């Protein structure tokens, strides 16, 4: 958080104290300004975790581009939290994570939270929500979007596809994941707790996903929650991050796809040098 946010949180902490949130009403001693400020910090991370995680994924897992050359990300399975993030202007956090490159942001989902955005900025009528950010939204499933717009060359192939907390056991995720693996697109998924993380890995292992990264997300929300319908379920937004691209197995031949070793790369480089010398 920047200095201004910290100051505002400090002011809010003092306001809460003066408003009488103390032992008189709670039966507990006043926790003090520092504890209230830390609590507010945790709440702020809950707001910033989505745009920060998305922005950092764009920064870390897309190709390097020259200044002012745009990068493209497709958010899949978006719902009210992602739509709210856009309406509230938190896309600026994504841009802050990528100061050199504009962002083309496409949101694809059949959810109610995405529907209004799809009406406001369809693929045929994208919206410039910032001089460095163009937004497109579509109401439907991603594998259908790919066939209708990307294969038809109406929308460019993305640099990265991302989903926040996808439930991969759902019937609609299978075709989308298979498509992204077959097309060798870089994909980032987040998980909200360890169980969700392990379930996602189990599904991805089953289809031979080739991992780029899997582990704790540095930009996780500090606001840990308990689910009302299951008191044993503890979670925090974007606790884990999984990044993968392509498969480890050729699905046509069912043979392992071997990565070139350093020795193979050195031999190829020597051969290339030899060909260059012969040509000159």
Describe the model.
Helices cover 44% and strands 22% of the residues. The chain has helices at 3-18, 23-26, 33-61, 80-87, 91-97, 112-120, 142-150, 173-182, 194-206, 262-279, and strands at residues 71-76, 103-109, 127-130, 133-139, 160-163, 186-191, 209-216, 225-227, 230-235, 240-247, 249-250, 255-256. α1 (3-18) packs antiparallel against α3 and α4 packs across α6. The longest helix is centred in the first third of the chain and has 29 residues, at 33-61.
Continuous helix count: 10
The percent of residues in helical segments reads 40-55%
Task: Write down how many β-strands occur, each being a DSSP E stretch of 2 or more residues.
Answer: 12
Compute the CA-based radius of gyration.
Answer: 23 Å
| Terminal-residue CA separation | 57 Å
Going by helix content, strand content and strand pairing, the class is: alpha/beta
Quote the beta fraction. 15-25%
Estimate the global geometry from the Cα principal axes: globular
The mean pLDDT is 84
N-to-C SSE string, H for helix and E for strand: HHHEHHEHEEHEHEHEEEEEEH
Brief overview:
The chain is α/β, with parallel strands linked by helices.
Lay out the secondary structure.
Blueprint: H1 3-18, H2 23-26, H3 33-61, E1 71-76, H4 80-87, H5 91-97, E2 103-109, H6 112-120, E3 127-130, E4 133-139, H7 142-150, E5 160-163, H8 173-182, E6 186-191, H9 194-206, E7 209-216, E8 225-227, E9 230-235, E10 240-247, E11 249-250, E12 255-256, H10 262-279
Parallel strand pairs: 1-2, 1-5, 2-4, 5-6
Antiparallel strand pairs: 3-4, 6-10, 7-10, 8-9, 11-12
Helix pairs in contact: 1-3, 3-5, 4-6
């Amino acid at each position: 958080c920047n200095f201004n946010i910290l100051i505002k949180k400090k002011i809010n902490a003092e306001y809460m104290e003066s408003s009488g949130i103390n032992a008189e009403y709670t039966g507990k001693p006043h926790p003090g300004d520092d504890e209230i400020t830390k609590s507010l910090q945790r709440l702020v991370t809950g707001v910033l975790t989505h745009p920060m995680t998305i922005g950092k994924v764009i920064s870390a897992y897309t190709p390097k581009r020259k200044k002012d050359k745009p990068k493209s990300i497709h958010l899949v399975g978006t719902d009210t939290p992602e739509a709210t993030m856009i309406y509230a202007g938190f896309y600026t956090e994504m841009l802050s994570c990528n100061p050199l490159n504009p962002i083309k942001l496409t949101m694809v989902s059949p959810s109610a939270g995405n529907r209004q955005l799809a009406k406001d900025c369809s693929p045929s009528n994208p919206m410039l929500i910032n001089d460095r950010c163009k937004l497109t939204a579509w109401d439907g499933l991603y594998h259908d979007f790919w066939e209708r717009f990307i294969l038809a060359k109406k929308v460019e192939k993305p640099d990265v596809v991302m989903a926040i907390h996808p439930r991969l056991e759902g019937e609609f995720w299978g075709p989308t994941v298979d498509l992204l693996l077959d097309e060798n697109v870089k994909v980032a998924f987040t998980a909200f707790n360890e169980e969700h993380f392990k379930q996602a890995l189990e599904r991805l292992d089953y289809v031979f996903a080739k991992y780029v990264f899997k582990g704790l997300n540095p930009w996780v929300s500090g606001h840990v929650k308990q689910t009302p319908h299951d008191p044993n379920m503890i979670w925090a937004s974007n606790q884990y991050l999984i990044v993968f691209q392509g498969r480890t197995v050729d699905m046509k031949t069912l043979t392992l796809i071997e990565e070139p070793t350093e020795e193979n790369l050195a031999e190829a480089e020597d051969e290339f040098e030899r060909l260059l010398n012969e040509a000159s």
